[in-house]
Backbone:
């Protein structure tokens, strides 16, 4: 079973860049899967932010594309998220997840990490 673990700071100041890393075990980000970042603001639903595929293609949510960057380090089996120019509205629980089939839902999820944007 694939395991994912998010890591990064839990507090970011407004206008700064939020950076998170997802470490994957029992699965390779370079051989299969569609590796996503998803967030859930307080009191709201899940929001897909973007994904990097096993072959390195990257897709972003149109609403966040101008501020989002996703990358990977295949030597460490990690993929990362950067969200620039954050505001308090970016406060959320951030998840990394993987889907075996594009568009079919995510099979495995990390536990999520709370990130608060506040001065």
Residues:
């Amino acid at each position: 079973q694939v395991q994912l673990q998010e890591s990064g700071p839990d507090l970011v100041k407004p206008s700064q860049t939020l950076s998170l890393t997802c470490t994957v075990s029992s699965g390779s980000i370079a051989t299969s899967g569609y590796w996503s970042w998803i967030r859930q603001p307080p009191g709201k639903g899940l929001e897909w932010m973007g994904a990097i595929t096993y072959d390195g293609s990257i897709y972003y949510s149109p609403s966040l594309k101008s501020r989002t960057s996703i990358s990977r380090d295949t030597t460490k089996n990690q993929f990362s998220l950067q969200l620039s120019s954050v505001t308090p509205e970016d406060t959320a629980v951030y998840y990394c997840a993987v889907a075996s089939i594009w568009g079919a839902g995510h099979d495995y999820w990390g536990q999520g990490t709370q990130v608060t944007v506040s001065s």
User: Anything to note?
Assistant: The radius of gyration is 13 Å. The first strand starts at residue 3 and ends at 7.
